[in-house]
Specification:
The chain has helices spanning 13-24, 53-62, 74-87; strands at residues 2-9, 29-33, 43-44, 47-51, 63-69, 90-91, 94-95, 100-101, 106-107, 112-113, 118-119, 124-125, 130-131, 136-137, 142-143, 148-149, 154-155, 160-161, 166-167, 172-173, 178-179, 184-185, 190-191, 199-202, 207-211. By secondary structure, it is α/β, with parallel strands linked by helices. It folds into two domains: 2-92, 3-Layer(aba) Sandwich (Rossmann fold), CATH 3.40.50; 95-206, UDP N-Acetylglucosamine Acyltransferase, domain 1 (3 Solenoid). An eight-stranded mixed β-sheet has the order 7-10-13-16-19-22-24-25, with helices on one face. Strands 3-4-2-1-5-6 form a six-stranded mixed β-sheet, sandwiched between helices.
């Protein structure tokens, strides 16, 4: 087989940030893949966009491919990870060297931790999670699979965030509060009480404003 390569799945804005993390770690990123035809034949950050999932499937047959998830949308990121697993491509995790991750924190496959983020002791981060720029995950927090903690958001000690949930820019989740699956917490919200599955909540204090998908 050919030598293993690293590619970023997703060539838009979030993919650029993931590529920057890998470069900061001095990992040899070969390029991007993306299903959007507008990227065909283009370069992003000086690297080629090789093609779409078909390229990944073909390449995985002849060499080891490691994939960093560069897709911001929760459900699309999960679907991409599942495609990679089905093709035999390894989905990798990475933390920017300017992030602080406690040795006792646990990171799931495909999780990305951006610059300035803090993940404190005994935090448990699921698969495919985004801990974005400057976010703070306090001690004993649990973040479910494929959730996204936006830039500047804070989760207090022992808080729980479900799967496929998006915590908006600068939002605050108080200690020991539980947020369900497939929830959207709006930017700047302060979450004082538990939030059930499949809702949209925002405001200070955060209140349920709509049902989610």
């Amino acid at each position: 087989m050919n030598s293993p390569i690293i590619v970023v799945f997703g060539a838009s804005g979030h993919g650029k940030v993931v590529c920057d993390i890998l470069r900061a770690l001095k990992l040899p990123v070969a390029g991007f893949i993306d299903g959007n035809s507008r990227f065909a034949g283009r370069e992003v950050m000086g690297l080629p966009v090789f093609g779409n999932e078909a390229w990944l499937a073909e390449r995985s047959r002849i060499s080891e491919v490691k994939v960093a998830l560069g897709i911001g949308d929760q459900k699309n990121r999960k679907a991409a990870a599942e495609k990679c697993n089905a093709m035999g491509a390894e989905v990798i995790s990475a933390a920017h060297p300017k992030a602080v991750v406690a040795p006792s924190a646990r990171l799931g496959e495909g999780t990305m931790i951006m610059a300035g983020a803090i993940v404190n002791p005994e935090a448990e981060i699921g698969r495919g999670v985004i801990i974005n720029t400057g976010a703070i995950i306090e001690h004993d927090v649990v973040i479910g699979d494929y959730s996204h903690i936006s830039p500047g958001a804070v989760t207090g000690g022992a808080a729980r965030v479900g799967s496929l949930t998006h915590i908006g820019l600068g939002a605050i989740v108080l200690p020991r509060v539980t947020i369900g699956n497939n929830v959207i917490i709006g930017a700047g919200a302060v979450v004082l009480h538990d939030v059930p599955d499949h809702v949209v909540a925002y405001g200070v204090p955060a209140e349920i404003r709509a049902k989610g998908n």
